[in-house]
C-alpha cells in the first residue's frame, strides 16, 4: 500500500474576527498518495489558496486533522514546520516571497544551506538554468520581471528535490510558451523524484496533465 503524502479529515478553516469572520474551508477530507499529481480547480475565493496554506502548515486548521508526510501539522510548532518545509515541501505561492536583499542565486541557495542540503550552490545554479534564468543569477528581485521572479520562486521550491511540491497558479505571470516549459519542468521534477504535486490552476492544459483533478466550491470539495 502506498503511503499517504497528505491526509485531511474534515478540515475547517475560519479566519477573521467579528464581521470579517469567514468560514473558508467547511469540512475538507482528502488523501493524496506519493507520486500523485493533483490539480485543484475552483472559482476565485473558493478556498484553493487557503487549502494549500493549511497543507503547507502556513495556516493552522481551525478544526479537523491535517497529516502531511506522516506529520500531524496541528501539533508542530513554527520552527518544526519551517524545517519540514525546508527539507521536504516545496511551496510556490502567488506572492513569491523572494527576499529583496538577496540575488536570485541566493534566494534559491540559502534555504538549502539552512537545512544542510548538499551542494546548494551547484543545485541552485542548475535549477535557475532549468527555468531559463542562468543569466539572471546575480540580479535582485527588483531587477527582475514578474515572470522572472515567479521562475526564481519555482526554482527555489524545486531545487531541494522535495517529496511534496505545492504550487499556486505557477504559470499565472508567464507567457504561454514559458508557462508550458515551466509546467513540463514541474511534472518532470516530481516524476523523477517520485514526489507528489498539488497545483492550483485555472489553465485546462495544466489540469489535463494531472493524474487527478479536485474541484473546490465555497470551501468544500465537489464530488
Ligand atoms: N484572513 C482572512 N480573513 C477573512 N477572510 C479571508 C482571509 N483570508 C482569506 N479570506 C477569504 O477566504 C476566501 C478564500 O480565499 P482563497 O485565497 O483561499 O481563495 P482562492 O480560491 O485561492 O481564490 P483565487 O483563485 O482568487 O486566488 C476568500 O473569500 C477570501 O476573501
From TrEMBL:
Single GO MF annotation: transmembrane transporter activity
Pfam families membership: ABC_tran (PF00005)
Gene Ontology CC terms: plasma membrane
Assigned keywords, A-Z: ATP-binding, Nucleotide-binding, Transport
The keyword Kinase is annotated on this UniProt entry: no
Domain of life (superkingdom): Bacteria
Domain ABC transporter: 6-223
SUPFAM superfamilies: P-loop containing nucleoside triphosphate hydrolases
The protein's name: Putative ABC transport system ATP-binding protein
Upper taxonomic lineage: Bacteria, Pseudomonadati, Pseudomonadota, Alphaproteobacteria, Sphingomonadales
